[in-house]
Specification:
The complex is a heterodimer of chains A (about 210) and B (about 190). With about 210 residues, chain A is mainly alpha-helical. Helix content of chain A is about 75%, strand content about 0%. The C terminus of chain A is likely disordered. In chain B, helix 2 packs across helix 3 and helix 6 crosses helix 8. The chains are: A mainly alpha (about 210), B mainly alpha (about 190). Chains A and B meet through helix 3 and helix 4 of A and helix 2, helix 3, helix 5, helix 6 and helix 8 of B.
């Protein structure tokens, strides 16, 4: 097919870049020019093709990652964490420097070891005192309310009854079997790794 | 010019409203991501570039000229990042060694990074696959103008501004890209 002299206008026409009178003239030309009409059809196919590209969604986590970097409130939090970290590191460095300076003083090692021994002895004493004070307070409270003796008196018949029942071989055997079955069930329901993908297998029962 | 919604969202972002940040990202994330995906042809790179586009956009938000369309502005940022990324890729080409049969000497072949990696997004529909293949077959400087014109719906002037090219060059590239695609479609159909 012989190239048409007006073909240069074709793409402008496709893009609607021609002024109205020019577009009208070109449409009249198209009606009588088979070459331009065939090209127009192909250009329209090209446009349709470019517009039919599939669209994909980026991962949802993208929004949070952007916000972490730009949101003023998060930036302030990051700055605070950074400042706190720097302050902590500074304090640690100052402590270590002081300790280092102390260690370099003559006789400071003896002083430090004496301090260490005293401090550990005092710590043990504090722990023993705390445990003693707590347990004696608890016992005083319980005996003051008569809880231990009354609870013992009330629970004793139940205890004897349960012991009698458990003493029967059939009951104890049943209980043992139930315990073994429960253990086996829990073992079966344990979280396991998928052999193929290393993924955790889903076990729906009881939230295991 | 920015639409009323965009201008309002920008105003709220400047006041530090988190909801507005989220809405602005939700409105343009797909456009930016798909431009990056077609240009870089690697899902991971496209994701990084989308993130960087939004970060730069938010950091420059105070300087945003509200008389310009917001969509064109963010696509401009994304396009320039795409071009920079592709330029860097070209500067770090893959090196391969080949032995010359006559001299037994090894020489280096510098090949451009081929683009799509194993994590490239899969296209299932046949006609979409064809469209992707044809667009991807275009050289980068033609591909970007086609994407901006047809997928992002930017005018010639906006494309010229985004790519910092003369209007005539943009027009010529779009026309040339269409001619290439036209001849490839013709080749397939014949």
């Amino acid at each position: 097919m012989i190239p048409c002299a007006q073909r240069d206008q074709l793409q402008d026409y496709v893009d609607r870049e021609l002024a109205a009178p020019e577009a009208l003239r070109f449409e009249e030309h198209l009606a009588g020019c088979a070459a331009c009409a065939a090209d127009l059809e192909l250009f329209q196919k090209v446009s349709a093709l470019a517009e039919s590209l599939p669209l994909f969604d980026p991962p949802a986590s993208l929004t949070e990652r952007v916000l972490d970097r730009v949101l003023p409130s998060r930036a302030r939090r990051r700055a605070f964490i950074r400042r706190a970290g720097l302050a902590y590191a500074g304090a640690l460095a100052a402590c270590l420097a002081t300790l280092g300076a102390l260690a370099l003083q003559p006789g400071s090692l003896t002083l430090l070891s004496a301090l260490g021994v005293t401090a550990s002895r005092r710590l043990v004493q504090i722990a023993v005192f705390t445990v003693n004070a707590g347990s004696s307070t608890l016992l005083d409270l319980v005996s003051g309310w008569g809880l231990v003796s009354s609870a013992g008196a009330r629970l004793a018949p139940f205890g004897r009854a349960i012991a009698t029942v458990l003493g029967r071989p059939s009951v104890s055997l049943t209980l043992w079997l139930a315990a073994v079955a429960c253990a086996a069930l829990i073992w079966w329901m344990r979280p396991r790794r998928d052999r193929q993908g290393g993924r955790m297998r889903h076990v729906g029962v009881l939230g295991f | 010019m920015a639409t009323g919604d965009d201008a309002e969202l920008v105003g709220r972002c400047l006041q530090g409203d988190e909801r507005a940040y989220r809405d602005l990202i939700a409105r343009y994330r797909r456009q930016v991501y798909n431009l990056a995906l077609r240009m870089l042809r690697r899902a991971e790179d496209a994701e990084d570039l989308t993130q960087e586009t939004f970060v730069r956009m938010f950091r420059a938000l105070e300087r945003y000229d509200t008389t310009r369309p917001f969509g064109a502005w963010i696509i401009t940022i994304a396009s320039r990042l795409c071009i920079d990324h592709l330029r860097r890729r070209r500067l770090n080409p893959m090196s391969m060694f080949q032995k010359d049969a006559a001299s037994e000497e090894e020489y280096v072949i510098e090949a451009e990074d081929p683009g799509p990696g194993p994590d490239v997004v899969t296209v299932h529909r046949e006609e979409e696959r064809r469209a992707v293949d044809l667009i991807d077959s275009l050289p980068e400087h033609y591909r970007i103008v086609v994407m901006l014109r047809h997928q992002q719906d930017l005018s010639y002037e906006e494309i010229a501004e985004a790519l910092e090219l003369p209007l005539g060059t943009v027009k010529a590239r779009i026309h040339r890209a269409r001619e290439i695609l036209k001849s490839r479609i013709e080749g397939r159909e014949s």
